[in-house]
Amino acid sequence: MEHNILIIGGNGLVGKTIARILKSRNPQLNIFIGGRKGGKTNKDLKIDVTDPNTFQAISDKKIDLIILSVNDKTDHVLQFAIENKIDYLDITKPTPDLVKAYSIAGKKEVNSRIVFSSGWMGGIVPGLVNVLSNNSIDVQEAKLFVYYSVKDLAGESSAHFMAENVAVPFYRYKNDRPVKIRHFLDTETFDFSFGVGKRSAYNFDVPDLYILNKIERISDVSVKMTYNSKFITWLLGGFQYLRIFNILSLKERRMIFGSSGNGDQSIFEIVIKNNNGYKKLSLQSTKGQAELTALSAVLHTEELLRNPHESNVYFSHQLHEPLSLMAQLNAYETININVTQ
């Protein structure tokens, strides 16, 4: 069966990476690239998420699955996909936008697969938590520690997200209740794998906080991040403690978070506590954050194409058997996974 896949935001860093990996693994697919400016080939479609009038091209090309790799704050693409019974995978939304979109989809009659995914780690974290425990209900606590390098390739959307949200409080969960916190505060020392060593890690907001608590029903959930530069990590903590971010303009905050290197490793580590004690899963992406996010999107896409999941609203980890998801990640040449007791 022929499948027509549209990557909206396909000219951005993550979108291009999704297209590259998806084409290399599935040469039989028809892959279209959607962007505000269109392109030079018949596979380049002019799609502007802020202008639903441009969506006619989606129907004209008989698109089966939309992969959204640009943040559609108005959810026009989501609503178009639902109304036209098109499968939909969103890998971009920060927590507040994800919660809003999930609520919108939950109130609609859905006749396709509508899939939401955490943009930071590609929606794989809850699935990997379930690798560590047979039942997430048995997990008493889940902690996620992220190592991010300023040398890594970074897309514009990542910088914009941090610039827009760094001064906005968010929630972690304790005893099944939300606890309001801010980025880059509440230091915790963590011994990172893959040669990184002990680092001070600070509060960081990713949608997995919401997903692990509200969907997987884990009562205590937190996320902390450190940069490869100890000085930068300390400096951002100082800026937040002194509330300097609150007085900077959006443009100035974008300049702070807008740097991008030529590529570096990205690491995240999951630590869970259940009745059997603590377990840890460590994942390294040697080609960085964008490669990991794009690979995750490809795995979700392949799962949707391969298996007859019913029409419904999903978070991306719910499509996969946890051990199968880990095996597929580990089989990719730039991903390394270790599990320790």
TrEMBL record:
<dbReference type="InterPro" id="IPR036291">
    <property type="entry name" value="NAD(P)-bd_dom_sf"/>
</dbReference>
<protein>
    <submittedName>
        <fullName>Saccharopine dehydrogenase</fullName>
    </submittedName>
</protein>
